[in-house]
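Field reference: sequence -> structure
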Amino acid sequence: MDRVSQMFRSFATRNYRIWFAGALVSNVGTWMQRIAQDWLVLAELTDDDAVAVGVVMALQFGPQLVLLPVTGWVADRFDRRHVLAVTQAAMMLLGAGLGLLTILGVVQLWMVFGFALGLGVAAAFDSPARQAFVGELVDDASLANAVALNAASFNTARLIGPAVAGMLVAAVGSGWVFLINAATFIAVLVSIWALRPSEFTPFTRKARGRGQMRAGFRYVRRRPDILLVFAMVFLTGTLGYNFPIYTSTMAKVEFGEGPEEFGWLSSALAIGSVAGALIAARRERPRLRTVTLASFGFGLSLGAAALAPEPWSFGALLVIVGFTGITMMNTANAYVQTTTAPSMRGRVLALYLAIFMGGTPIGAPLVGAIADAAGPRWAIAAGAASGLVAAAIAAVFYVRTREVRVRWSRQGRWPITVSAATPADRDTATQEIAIVEAGTQR
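Structure field:
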């Protein structure tokens, strides 16, 4: 199989092709709404209030954490196809409602907060079901590839949506962008209807019973490798992944630009994200060391972006930020999915998403406050620190688990030597994880 075929091998499955097409259209609309919503809050409903943008983000992502005990259980207990049909329809109605209020000129900040919360609740149920649903569309051998292509779809939409939204906001206003987003949900609803359940990859669905939600926590607690991923994702998700605040405040406050520039800066971020996702799709399996190196690169590139003197250099550095950021998160997501038992996948993914997005209610207002008090560049610097600290935590984990050995020596050129663990050490670690997997499924 050549490299191109290897990269897109999940498209050989009919159900996945249909799902991918519908999700891509819907994702474009979602990114259009995000840009229009952030600009509406920052430039039209407030006087450059970055904290208000942070509150909107907190309300939109906070339910991932608050509803965690329920959302993962729903994803594992009920038909994920039906769950997605309900959540996607709910988000369509919310987008249409906000669009009408904005076009009529009666929208107020508290209304945007309310719609953001509604979208957050719908997304809290949608995200783990959608992530786990991919495992039903392809076989196990193609799962990591399908996860990577999903990320490519999401970030291709990020490349298109913000640029289009920036032009439309300047031309016709935010309200029409919200209505266009609502219309794009029709594509994903049609794709859900067109899927063939008879061709789904079967898995053992958990029966009714007490303690099903707690089982997900017990499973993760016995997996130190997944706990490491969760710690890294929490740090970068809380402080590093506040891109709407970074791009909107740098565009308007630091560079004095308008919505079109805000849109293309967000698209520049997506260029690197698409490239990172496609490269990840070529990998046979995800590795923790890739997560670590990408986290380190994310911190360095975001720190460099904080020093960019003008919009073009800032946009160029955002390409690198996007590449390293999506490489880290996509590899972390794929690692969690491919190393988790299928019957536990919904609950574990709900934990993953809650940790990734659940830190936003803390991080987004905090980063927004830093931007208001000290300027956008210091807010970006805080995000850069999160990537570097996450990589440092991983380095300590590798040393303690003997995945990497550090030796002090008075001989040779360097006082410290670093070496990879022996194959026997790695085999032992793999066997220990396998034993834990088996024990948690009894």
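Note: The first helix runs from residue 3 to 7.
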